[in-house]
Design brief:
Strand order of the largest sheet: 4-1-5
CATH superfamily: SecY subunit domain
Radius of gyration: 24 Å
Largest sheet: 3 strands, antiparallel
Strand content: 5-15%
Shape: globular
CATH topology: Preprotein translocase SecY subunit
Order of helices and strands: HHHHHHHHHHEEEEHHHHHEHHH
Number of domains: 1
Oligomer: single chain
Distance between the termini: 10 Å
Length: about 450
C-alpha cells in the first residue's frame, strides 16, 4: 500500500489531484474559523460546554467543524443536502422533472435547480440554527439578531454565502481533485474532531476512563470490520448473450454477471437521515415557544430518548430503500441488456427483467438497510448500556463513547476512504501500476 501511494505521487496528474484536494480542505478549515459578525464568544463557549453531542454535534459534523466557531460556514453543506433530498423525492412524482432529467443535459438542469433551492434552505437554516442555539444556550449567541435589521441581514447574507462557498469547494474537489467533494469535506471534519472528542471523553466523563477507552476501541474495530464486509458484499446475477453466426464465424454467446451490491448507496442515506432528523428542532424554533416546541427541542435537539432513536432508525432504513430504488430505475439495466442482446436465464427481457432486478435488489437491500440502521443507533445502544451499568451516575452525550466518531461518522469515514482509494486505484491501473485494492 505504501508503494502504491508512492506510485500515486510519481504520476503528475494524480499527484496534482491529491494536492488540490488537500489544498481545498485547508482553505475550508481556514474559512471555518471566520466567525459570523456579532457572535458573542462567551455565549457560544458556554453553549458548547453544556451541549456535548446532540444536535450541535450533528450540525458540527455536517459543517466540517465550523459550528464550534459559529463561522460563516456554520451551515456547511446541509442546505444543499436537503435540497438534493427534495429533488430526489420529487423527480419520480413530478412528470415534468422526470422528463427534464431524461433529456440531454437534463441532469445539469436538475443540478442547477438544486443550487437555486439551496439558497432559501440556507436562509431558513441560518434563522432556525440561531434560534435553537439561543434556546439551548439560555442566552442569545448573536445579541440583537432579529431586532437590528442591518445586523440580521448581514448575518443571513454571510451565512448563505458561506454555504454556497462550501458547496463550490465540494464541487471543485469532485471535478479537480479525488473523490466526492461533499463527502470528503464532512469526512475531514469528522477526522479533525476525533482526537479532541476522545480526550474529552477520557478526561471529563463520569465513567472509568479505561471502560470508555475499551468500549471506544471495540466499537471502532467491530464497526469498521462489519462496514467493510457489507460494503464489499455483492449478489451476482448471471447474464447470457445470444449467439450470432455470420458465415463461418460465431459472435457473442458469452456469459457474465451483474454485480448488485448489498449496500449500493454507501453512506448517502445516513447523511440524508442526519439532515432530516435535525429539521424538526430547527423548524419549531422559528415559532413562539410552547410545550410542544420544548418537547420536540428536547427530543431532537438533545438526541436522546426512544422516540429520537426509533425515528432515526426508520429514516435510515427508509432512505436506503428509496435511494436504492431511484438508482436502479435510473440505470435502466433491463433496457441496456436488451439493447446489447443480453438476458437473464429464465427471465423474459424487458419489463420482466426490470421487475426481477428490482425484486432481487430490494431483497439484498434489506440486509444493507438494517445494517445501516443499527450502525446509526449505536450511540443510543451505548447510552442504554451506560444507564444499566452505572445507574447512579449522570449519563448523557458527554459520556457516550460511541459519539466520539458516532456510527454514522464511522460509515462516512470508511465509505469515503474506500471510494477515494478506488478512484486512486483506477488512476493507477490505467497506467499499469498495482493499485491499493487486491
Amino acid at each position: 500500500m505504501i508503494e502504491a501511494f508512492r506510485n500515486a505521487f510519481r504520476l503528475p496528474d494524480v499527484r496534482n489531484k491529491l494536492l488540490i484536494t488537500a489544498f481545498i480542505l485547508v482553505v475550508y478549515q481556514f474559512a471555518a474559523h471566520v466567525p459570523v459578525v456579532g457572535v458573542d464568544p462567551g455565549a457560544l463557549s458556554s453553549l458548547l460546554a453544556s451541549q456535548q453531542g446532540g444536535l450541535i454535534g450533528v450540525l458540527n459534523l455536517l459543517s466540517g467543524g465550523a459550528v464550534r466557531h459559529f463561522s460563516v460556514m456554520a451551515n456547511g453543506v446541509y442546505p444543499y443536502i436537503t435540497a438534493s433530498i427534495i429533488f430526489q423525492l420529487l423527480i419520480p412524482l413530478v412528470p415534468a422533472l422526470e422528463a427534464i432529467q431524461k433529456e440531454p443535459g437534463g441532469q445539469e438542469k436538475i443540478q442547477r435547480y438544486t443550487y437555486f433551492l439551496a439558497i432559501p434552505m440556507a436562509v431558513l437554516q441560518s434563522v432556525g440554527q440561531i434560534q435553537i442555539f439561543n434556546v439551548l444556550g439560555g442566552r442569545p449567541i448573536i445579541p440583537d439578531f432579529g431586532s437590528d435589521l442591518l445586523l440580521t441581514l448581514s448575518v443571513l447574507a454571510t451565512m448563505t454565502a458561506g454555504t454556497m462557498f462550501a458547496i463550490w469547494l465540494g464541487e471543485l474537489i469532485t471535478e479537480q481533485g479525488i473523490g466526492n467533494g461533499l463527502s470528503i469535506i464532512i469526512f475531514a471534519g469528522i477526522v479533525a474532531q476525533a482526537p479532541t472528542s476522545l480526550v474529552q471523553l477520557l478526561t471529563s466523563a463520569t465513567q472509568p476512563w479505561l471502560y470508555n477507552l475499551i468500549l471506544f476501541v471495540v466499537i471502532v474495530v467491530v464497526s469498521v470490520v462489519v462496514i467493510v464486509i457489507i460494503y464489499e458484499g455483492v449478489r451476482r446475477v448471471p447474464v447470457q448473450y445470444g449467439k450470432r453466426v455470420r458465415g463461418r464465424k460465431q459472435y457473442g454467446g458469452g456469459t457474465t454477471f451483474i454485480p448488485l451490491k448489498v449496500n449500493a448507496v454507501g453512506m448517502i442515506p445516513l447523511i440524508f437521515a442526519q439532515s432530516i432528523i435535525t429539521f424538526p428542532a430547527i423548524i419549531v424554533n422559528l415559532f413562539p415557544p410552547g410545550p410542544v416546541a420544548a418537547s420536540i427541542t428536547e427530543t431532537f435537539g438533545q438526541h436522546q430518548g426512544l422516540a429520537y432513536w426509533l425515528t432515526f432508525f426508520l429514516l435510515v432504513v427508509g432512505f436506503t430503500f428509496l435511494y436504492t430504488d431511484i438508482m436502479v430505475a435510473q440505470q435502466n439495466l433491463a433496457e441496456n441488456l436488451q439493447r446489447q442482446g443480453g438476458f437473464i436465464p429464465g427471465i423474459r427481457p424487458g419489463k420482466r427483467t426490470q421487475e426481477y432486478i428490482q425484486r432481487v435488489t430490494r431483497r439484498i437491500t434489506l440486509v444493507g438497510a438494517l445494517f445501516l440502521g443499527v450502525i446509526a443507533i449505536v450511540p443510543g445502544i451505548v447510552d442504554l448500556l451506560n444507564r444499566l451499568l452505572f445507574p447512579l451516575e449522570t449519563v448523557g452525550n458527554a459520556n457516550n463513547a460511541a459519539l466520539v466518531l458516532s456510527g454514522s461518522g464511522l460509515i462516512i469515514v470508511v465509505g469515503v476512504v474506500i471510494d477515494t482509494m478506488r478512484q486512486i486505484e483506477a488512476q493507477l491501473v490505467m497506467r499499469n501500476y498495482e493499485g491499493f485494492m487486491k
